């Protein structure tokens, strides 16, 4: 018993505790002859915590809210004693901390006292009205609120839609014969001074790359600028703008890939090694976008995505 924090604030002298227990009129505890040991009276064993007892305890327990956050247990017990005999007061705290959040479960000795406390027209603590409700009603309300929140989240997920990427004319080029050792960064560095790149579909070692620009007709500007090829890493890489069926197929693939990535992230898909979010790419866990700069590119390898404790009031 001397290890109990509340008791230690009063005394750490075992003899003082022994004397106090012997004077108790509850008859629940007994002290050994040498005053060094305490046990529950064998004639009064701890009741079995079965469904019947749980129901009995809940019928005598009241939820009350409206207390200052700086209160202690002694002050609360002293307050509730004025409304009948009590078995215990449970201070409700914020999850993961010892901060009292102003509400309690108070267990009265009898169901009649609990009902009488709830039936009072008004109960105030330091001029603040207290909210009072049976514990069973409180939990029923909280459980319903939690179920409703989960249902709303599930409904919102099922209603999530992925809009198609807005098709813009002359914004995509294809580079062919990309030199060994080329990277997406080198491609961007070569093109950004002329037109801002929106994304690059390319992995190291590939020979072709698709590049999309932010502004309409930027692809036309690029092809007119680099008629002899785009200078990348010491080589002039042939370039042409996607048009007609090739361009239409690109937008179709892009929208399919976008929806697939959305689905994989929702249900725990896997990404590959390449690109900004892959094993060898930049961005680490902050961004996992396969081999693209945005969520609107054509198909790419997808990688491992490292995507309520109801505390109430």
Short structural description:
By secondary structure, this protein is of the alpha+beta class.
Work out the helix count: 9
Computed structural class: alpha+beta
CA radius of gyration is: 35 Å
Estimated share of beta-strand residues: 15-25%
Q: Helix-strand pattern, N to C?
A: HHEEHEHEEHEEEHEHEEHEEEH
In whole angstroms, the N-to-C terminal distance is: 32 Å
- Low-confidence runs: 270-296, 298-310
Features:
9 helices, 35% helix, four-stranded antiparallel beta sheet, 19% strand, elongated, 313 residues, alpha+beta
Describe the SSE topology.
Elements: H1 5-10, H2 14-23, E1 29-31, E2 38-40, H3 51-59, E3 61-65, H4 73-81, E4 86-93, E5 100-108, H5 111-119, E6 124-125, E7 128-129, E8 131-134, H6 135-159, E9 172-176, H7 184-191, E10 197-201, E11 208-213, H8 218-225, E12 230-232, E13 235-237, E14 239-241, H9 244-267
């Amino acid at each position: 018993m001397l290890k109990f924090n509340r008791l230690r604030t009063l005394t750490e002298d075992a003899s003082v505790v022994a004397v106090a227990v012997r004077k108790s009129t509850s008859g629940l505890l007994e002290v050994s002859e040498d005053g060094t040991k305490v046990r529950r009276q064998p004639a009064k064993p701890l009741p079995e915590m079965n469904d019947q007892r749980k129901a009995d305890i809940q019928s005598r327990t009241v939820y009350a809210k409206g207390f200052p956050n700086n209160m202690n247990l002694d002050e609360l017990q002293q307050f509730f004693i004025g409304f009948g005999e009590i078995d215990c007061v449970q201070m409700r705290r914020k999850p993961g901390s010892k901060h009292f959040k102003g509400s309690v479960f108070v267990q009265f000795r009898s169901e009649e006292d609990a009902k009488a406390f709830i039936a009072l027209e008004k109960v105030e603590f330091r001029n603040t009205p207290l909210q009072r409700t049976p514990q069973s009603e409180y939990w029923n309300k909280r459980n319903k609120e939690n179920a409703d929140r989960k249902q709303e989240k599930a409904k919102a997920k099922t209603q999530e839609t992925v809009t198609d990427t807005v098709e813009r004319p002359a914004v995509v080029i294809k580079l062919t014969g990309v030199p060994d050792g080329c990277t997406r960064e080198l491609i961007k560095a070569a093109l950004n001074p002329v037109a801002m790149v929106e994304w690059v579909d390319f992995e190291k070692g590939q020979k072709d790359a698709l590049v999309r620009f932010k502004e309409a007709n930027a692809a036309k500007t690029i092809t007119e600028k680099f008629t002899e090829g785009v200078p990348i890493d010491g080589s002039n890489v042939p370039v042409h703008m996607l048009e007609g069926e090739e361009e239409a197929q690109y937008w179709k693939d892009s929208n399919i890939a976008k929806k697939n990535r959305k689905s994989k992230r929702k249900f725990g898909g896997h990404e590959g090694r390449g690109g900004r979010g892959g094993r060898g790419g930049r961005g680490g866990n902050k961004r996992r976008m396969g081999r693209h700069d945005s969520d609107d590119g054509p198909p790419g390898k997808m990688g491992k995505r490292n995507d309520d404790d109801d505390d109430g009031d």
